[in-house]
Queue: 2 jobs
Job 1
Amino acid sequence: MLTKITVGSLETNCYVLSDDETSDAVIIDPGADGDMIIEHIKQLGLKPGLILNTHGHFDHIGANAAVKDEFDIDLMIHGNDVMLLSEAKSHAAGFGFPGTPSPGPNHTFKDGETITLGSMKLTVVHTPGHTPGCVCFYKEDEALLVTGDTLFAGSVGRTDLPGGSFPTLIDSLRTKIMPFDDNVRVLPGHGPGSTIGHEKRTNPYLVELREEG
Ligand SMILES: [Zn+2]
Ligand SMILES: [Zn+2]
């Protein structure tokens, strides 16, 4: 089962992926509103086993501490974004928001790594550009791609924040996102969902890459 909870001032999408048989659950980007996320998980009777972050920005990690404390589970993020976890307060202040720093990760993952929880398998796809440690999570059996702030419906993540790089982002889109099949569902960090096919046809950044290829 896939559920989405939209949290915080920047309306970040927190996704909960769970195994229908065992109720094992992965929580992706608990960005804020920890109480709401915890309540949601308890109401569904899920057994949370892992917290994953698509990247280290404050609006994606703000409830890491609350959710980790409540369920006593591991936290994972790409190594390149670990520094951002402790900088959430100052980063958020730059946007005029309070920020909650995150505890450090129990594990830092790398491109291509498979994360397993019960029978669930997610592949880490490193897509730097918005931040150096941005990743997408691909669940092959359900053709789901959680894209964080790398790819949105109709747009891509900004690259003007510290550590961001537009050429790096375009390279990630070209080499990591374009190869996905059209039927793969896109679950972005903000805003509505989409599919890879729809984005290849309508997202100006992907249209341009399709035309050059
Ligand atoms: Zn971000
Ligand atoms: Zn964001």
Note: The chain has eight helices and 14 strands.
Job 2
Amino acid sequence: MSKVHNTPTACRHERGVALVTALLVVALATTAAVAMATRLHVDLRRAGNLLHGEQAYAYALAAESWAQVILRRDAGDNQVDSFEDDWATSLPPIAVEGGLVDGEVYDLQGRFNVNNLVTDTGTMDQSGLDYYRQLLERLGLDQTLATALLDWLDSDINATFPGGVEDEDYLLADPPYRAANRRLVDISELRLVQGYTAEVIALLAPHVTALPRTTKINVNTATPVVLLALHEDLEARAIEDLVEAREQQIYETVNDFLAEDALAGLQLPVEVSVQSEWFLVLTDVVVGGGRARLQSLIHREDKATQVIMRTRARHYLLPPPAAG
Ligand SMILES: [Ca+2]
Ligand SMILES: [Ca+2]
């Protein structure tokens, strides 16, 4: 019986199986070849992007070095820091081989350093706190934000009244955490402090910074709101005039600023300055498919500069302040 089945029908069946197998092998081989080609293509692209990314980073570091040269040269050129200085000049993006380099230097002493709420030993700094309360007031923000931040920064664990927040509140959060009880390393840490919502931070961001030491506000580069917060009796209109006048004639000395009519008879809670030591350099470089964004905190002292902190960011953590 079986022989009967090994007739042309069976042969055709075997030939059929062989053909299907052959087709499958061809199909698999083709798929594998395509997959390999795709992988190779992706690998090449990945390698290319990595290479471009590294190239972009190298350019960003070069731009950062260049910014430091400008800042050092400025310290030799003049004893005052203002938007008239070379470092404050905004340049269009510079074309480099295969890409573009963009960079900007910002004077961080044109903002209020929130670390001034505490002294170097971690106790409350009354004048810093008074200033910050006025800044919050001018921005239409809640006063309790001042005590919440003070408690985050001060070394003790006793909540300040009213509005203070220490461990007992943060430990109830999900997930629980503790107050830092030390100065901020980066202003983005504000996000951890109770009450500092995205909306609050967006309002504050252009006017605040976090620097490792107590700093003075530079009246030549301070934002209008930062100037307005110097005293509760200052009027917005007077500060507008003052900022306009500053564009024509910068303040060469602190006394020139204090001699302004708008400030007559006012006792400022904090010391001000016409010089700056702390700068932020933002660099944005694109090379082919690679991109490098760098935030560098620069300290300048005695005509020397030092990079204190460097962050390679996908997005800048905080927007830069509006110039002027
Ligand atoms: Ca200068
Ligand atoms: Ca504390």
Note: Residues 151, 154, 156-157, 166, 179, 181 surround calcium ion (ligand 2) (CB under 6 Å).
